[in-house]
Amino acid sequence: MSLIVQKFGGSSVANAERLLNVARIVTDTYRAGNEVVVVVSAQGDTTDDFIAKAAELNARPSKREMDVLLSAGEQISMSLLAMTIQTLGCTAISLTGWQAGIQTDINYSEARIRKVKPERVRSELDRGRIVIIAGFQGINKQDDITTLGRGGSDTTAVAIAASLGADLCQIYTDVDGVYTADPRIVPNARKLTEITYDEMLELASLGAQVLHNRSVEMAKKYNVDLEVVSSFTRNPGTKVKEGSDMEKMNVSGVARDNNCARIAVINLPDEPGVAFKVFSLLAKHKINVDIILQSVGKNRVKTISFTVPQDSAEETREVLANAKGQLGFEDLSVNTEVAKVSIVGAGMASNSGVAAKMFEALAMAGINIRMISTSEIKISVLINEEDSEKAVKAIHNKFFSEE
Amino acid sequence: MSLIVQKFGGSSVANAERLLNVARIVTDTYRAGNEVVVVVSAQGDTTDDFIAKAAELNARPSKREMDVLLSAGEQISMSLLAMTIQTLGCTAISLTGWQAGIQTDINYSEARIRKVKPERVRSELDRGRIVIIAGFQGINKQDDITTLGRGGSDTTAVAIAASLGADLCQIYTDVDGVYTADPRIVPNARKLTEITYDEMLELASLGAQVLHNRSVEMAKKYNVDLEVVSSFTRNPGTKVKEGSDMEKMNVSGVARDNNCARIAVINLPDEPGVAFKVFSLLAKHKINVDIILQSVGKNRVKTISFTVPQDSAEETREVLANAKGQLGFEDLSVNTEVAKVSIVGAGMASNSGVAAKMFEALAMAGINIRMISTSEIKISVLINEEDSEKAVKAIHNKFFSEE
């Protein structure tokens, strides 16, 4: 008998028909002889509807009260799912975040899970019940309801799986796994059978949008086997785990991120500590900097370029402009018409030809590289946004059609 | 400084405009120098919508899961009200049933409050906050959410008021007080300034539909001063309390209940214990019997007539028909075209002319009395349903125009 945690997102439980579909997946898993814990998000547009209702009443509602409001969403979906499972002849019980022992810090709207006390869940499983838990929510030390912010339900699922020592944590979503590239761009992209936590982390942060990084980081930390799987098909998904026999694959995927902007701070004085000044200023404003390029010009000046998320571009411009006198640069340029394309693979570090192969693919496609960044398991390039689909196709073709 | 509990029903918080109206009432009370605890129901049709959603998924959903679902309704309305109060510049905090310490027995869907632990509410009041509590819900000893059934939010308000030693518990509703008769039937009905708990209990059970009996019983038990008041006007309402100077008023109101049925068990053997057999059988089926009339006929048989709520009439007929052999009666008749009209007043017992005056009014209006029942503070008559409005008008005219 295995213990399996299954997480279903809002679109998977959006209406009666889909709830029935989810109930069938859950009861099939239970009847195959497994213990099953289910984590659910709020139905479809519930959260957006609540946010709109609140906005009508208060332009800046308190975060505490927003959490009270939003957490009602999962309470609704979890009870409806429990009732649906009961019609299929299994016993099910739904538990809110606090009933399931999800203890968080006190940061309303973006709380972090501090501890899971799994006693209640464990005892319900011991009574032969399917346990349904509200995702995205917990309780803080003041006995107040908190919500976990983006990726919250995935994180709840992994935390519950870790605390119970589950054999598998399945994340059901509207795609049926992790692909070597976005199938909407590269129709012959292949589904990966397995991928490591680190590769998944790189793919997620690069825009693959399958799993939220928080949940993958937690899965890695507690060594929880994840599976990304579709709630609409019954095909096997992609397993995410610590792998040893995965080195054979140099490159596991190609990802694209159009949500970035390139900032250039032009003609800074070429003095020691000037880069530190720029980036400590941005860090103070919690602006997340990714690729950095520094070029020394003539006449003892240099230019520092870097990328930030597109929605931080305007703030970055303001912060730097306000510090122009202090930093001593001549000009600023902001370009949001850029995209980052990356290849990710655990075997990349030990294979020196990978970068050359990627650059060759881009050169053959006539695409100009503006910035480059590399790590142990990824190579990212910044290119013009208009070239990004072509770049993904060319790189994918190079690595996955030639193999 | 007084401590005031204010309860608002579903129609009072149904939309943004009404929430703002309620928020104004609450903040006005607070700014007048009072401590304020607010108890809210779910918005407008929320509960009905939830019930419909559940019915779509499961014809007989478990009561536990229904309580999880329904309790989300007050969680939504209380957080929205808190946000609305915040826009008016007061600090407010919303608490669910379990956060507010409402402990119940384990009967899902119709739980009884066993205890209120007011520490959290008290400490929030001490911090100068307006405290908003979800009505209708609590938590049982298994840490599961329960709901209180009909009249639940009124009961929550009274229980909170009792536990905090509040000075007043205001029940805001869509009528602005308790009248000497239903103003839709008797346009010149007068609003009562004060009424005793016992009178209110009689009026409520007789169909006045202003306050649920459970809440009045609890208010009487813990001596909580109630006030029935409208959330749409700012007029003074009706106070419900233990009164000593109220005897001066013989009759405080006329009530009508069309939701009753008259059952006649015809020609039972005239033997000792036969009435006991009939009513213990009905009690076993939890059928609530009101007025009873027994008439002895010829040939050692007798007929027992009684009233039951109209929606119990069919069940009563079945229960009795199944026991026909055992009880030995000849025939059964069920008549749902009847109504009960009652006068209520704490001063009635000491004034022997009241009953005669009521019967005179009915006789003058040509209305036939089918059954009569009296208690210390009320006189009820059963008449044909078609006469009920005329009866209320005639009786009201007799008692309140002649005074």
Describe this structure in words.
Two copies of one chain form a homodimer. Chain A is α/β, with parallel strands linked by helices and 403 residues long. Chain A is built from twelve helices and 18 strands. In chain A, strand 11 (226-230) and strand 12 (238-240) form a beta hairpin. The interface between A and B is large, with 37 and 37 residues.
Reconstruct the topology from this structure.
2 copies of one chain form a homodimer.
Chain A: E1 3-8, H1 16-31, E2 35-40, H2 46-57, H3 63-87, E3 92-95, E4 102-104, E5 113-116, H4 119-126, E6 130-134, E7 137-139, E8 145-147, H5 152-164, E9 168-173, E10 194-195, H6 197-208, H7 213-221, E11 226-230, E12 238-240, E13 253-269, H8 274-284, E14 292-296, E15 301-309, H9 313-322, H10 324-327, E16 331-344, H11 353-364, E17 371-374, E18 378-384, H12 388-401
Parallel strand pairs in A: 1-2, 1-9, 2-6, 3-6, 9-11, 10-12
Antiparallel strand pairs in A: 4-5, 7-8, 11-12, 13-15, 13-16, 14-15, 16-18, 17-18
Helix pairs in contact in A: 1-3, 2-3, 5-7, 6-7, 11-12
Compute the CA-based radius of gyration of chain A: 24 Å
Give a count of the beta strands of chain A, DSSP E runs of length 2 or more: 18
Helix vs. strand class of chain A: alpha/beta
Strand order of the largest sheet of chain A: 3-6-2-1-9-11-12-10
Low-confidence regions of chain A: none
Shape of chain A: globular
**Interface with most residues:** A-B, 37 and 37 residues
**Topology of chain A as a string of helices (H) and strands (E):** EHEHHEEEHEEEHEEHHEEEHEEHHEHEEH
Largest sheet of chain A: 8 strands, mixed
**Beta-strand content estimate of chain A:** 25-35%
